[in-house]
């Protein structure tokens, strides 16, 4: 792990900032254009969830360098209300804000690794990784 | 007593100015203003210090100060030059006044501080206000410019209009897109509207949701919406996200979308055959010979 960077999400335009930084990192790591678009979209979803449901939070990027593979890890952390029923939000079409409800299940499909740690009333931390192929 | 402080400062203005200029010039060496020529820097310093003393004489903010700050704003000098300069000035002046007295009681000390503060602080406030006012003005102008660019609608042909979208779509812009789209469809009496997303970098669920809503609204007022400019990588992410865009036609490029639009309005493109006929005639006449 040789670098860390972080974008604070406070307003809607910070989502764009996070996305641009993530895309830059993805490009540096040698992801193809399709994977770059996938990563940018995933960041966009995660950052927007923070903006919509928690108000403020941050998106952190880490390069994961393992013996046999390299990847970009994205961690979205907030201290918002948390998720009451994780299995419910992972269903396609479930949304509390009138959206499409494809956000989190979509991110899971866009990325290679996906994990939610959340406590009702404590906040949410979502960790996700895309491996370079 | 405050009068006495003023008097000391005024009478020794040369010394204070000299000292201040030394410190500011010294600090300049490893500083932000290094791209500015020495001559301009020195003359600005002198003007700056004159403006400061003018405001002490007149006991208030002067027109010169306003003109000076306006000029610096326009030249794009950093605000930190002015705030640093004034802070240095405050320190130099207080040090000087203190050095003129062998014995200082706390009362007199607070009078000096009070006097210098009430002189320097309004200038700092004025300058900061001038600068931030200028920034706010620039930002608001840019916001207006951006808004004008955000959702253009081009009537290309009778009954066909195009909305090319470039850049990030946020909630505010999504609202504008919807409004302009519906207004335009009614105004231009469009049967088909093409939304071109070639220039949209990322299509996430929110963007998709807004496009679907806009297309649905267009359908409700009796027109057809075609989504064009879907790049391969965007198509893949849309599929991964599981977004259903099946309710309206989508095309990879504006050209294909436009052809579909022509079909929908009962038109096709015909190439004129004139030239071909001329060639055929020549060929035929050649064969006869």
What can you tell me about this protein's structure?
The complex is a heterodimer of chains A (133) and B (289). Chain A is α+β, with helices and mostly antiparallel strands and 133 residues long. Chain A has a single domain (4-131), classed as Histidine kinase-like ATPase, C-terminal domain (Heat Shock Protein 90), CATH 3.30.565.10. Chain A is 39% helix and 30% strand. A five-stranded antiparallel β-sheet of chain A has the order 1-2-3-5-4, with helices on one face. In chain A, α2 packs antiparallel against α4 (103-110). The mean pLDDT of chain A is 89. Chain B has 289 residues and is α/β, with parallel strands linked by helices. Chain B folds into two domains: 2-146, Globins (Globin-like), CATH 1.10.490.10; 154-264, Transcription Regulator spoIIAA. Chain B contains eleven helices and four strands, in the order ααααααββαβαβααα. The radius of gyration of chain B is 35 Å and the shape is elongated. The interface between A and B is medium-sized, with 24 and 21 residues.
Briefly say what this structure is.
The complex is a heterodimer of chains A (133) and B (289). Helix content of chain A is 39%, strand content 30%.
């Amino acid at each position: 792990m040789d670098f860390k960077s972080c974008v604070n999400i406070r307003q809607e335009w910070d989502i764009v900032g996070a996305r641009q930084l993530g895309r830059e990192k993805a490009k540096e790591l040698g992801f193809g254009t399709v994977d770059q678009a996938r990563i940018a979209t995933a960041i966009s979803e995660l950052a927007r969830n923070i903006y919509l449901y928690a108000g403020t939070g941050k998106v952190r990027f880490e390069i994961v360098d393992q013996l046999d593979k390299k990847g970009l890890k994205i961690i979205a952390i907030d201290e918002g209300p948390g998720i009451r029923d994780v299995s419910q939000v992972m269903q396609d079409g479930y949304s509390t804000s009138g959206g499409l409800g494809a956000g989190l299940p979509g991110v899971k499909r866009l990325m290679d690794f996906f994990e939610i740690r959340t406590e009702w009333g404590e906040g949410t931390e979502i960790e996700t990784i895309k491996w370079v192929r | 007593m405050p009068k006495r402080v003023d008097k000391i400062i005024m009478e020794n203005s040369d010394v204070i100015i000299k000292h201040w200029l030394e410190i500011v010039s010294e600090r300049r060496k490893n500083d932000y203003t290094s791209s500015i020529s020495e001559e301009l820097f020195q003359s600005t310093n002198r003007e700056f210090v004159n403006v400061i003393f003018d405001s002490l004489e007149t006991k208030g903010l002067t027109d010169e100060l306003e003109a000076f700050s306006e000029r610096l704003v326009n030249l794009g000098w950093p605000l930190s030059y002015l705030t640093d300069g004034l802070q240095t000035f405050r320190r130099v002046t207080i040090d000087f006044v203190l050095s003129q007295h062998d014995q200082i009681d706390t009362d007199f000390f607070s009078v000096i501080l009070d006097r210098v503060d009430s002189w320097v602080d309004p200038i700092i406030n004025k300058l900061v206000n001038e600068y931030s006012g200028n920034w706010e003005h620039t930002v608001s102008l840019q916001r207006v410019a951006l808004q004008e660019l955000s959702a253009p609608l081009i009537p290309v042909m009778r009954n066909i209009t195009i909305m090319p979208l470039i850049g990030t779509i946020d909630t505010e812009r999504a609202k504008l897109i919807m409004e302009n789209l519906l207004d335009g469809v009614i105004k231009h009496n469009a049967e088909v509207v093409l939304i071109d997303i070639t220039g949209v970098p990322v299509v996430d669920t929110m963007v998709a949701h807004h496009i679907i809503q806009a297309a649905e609204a267009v359908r409700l007022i009796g027109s057809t919406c075609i989504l064009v400019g879907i790049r391969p990588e965007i198509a893949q992410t849309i599929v991964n996200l599981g977004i259903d865009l099946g309710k309206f036609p989508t095309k990879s490029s504006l050209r294909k979308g436009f052809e579909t639009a022509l079909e929908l309005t009962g038109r096709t493109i015909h190439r004129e055959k004139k030239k071909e006929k001329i060639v055929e005639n020549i060929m035929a006449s050649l064969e006869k010979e």
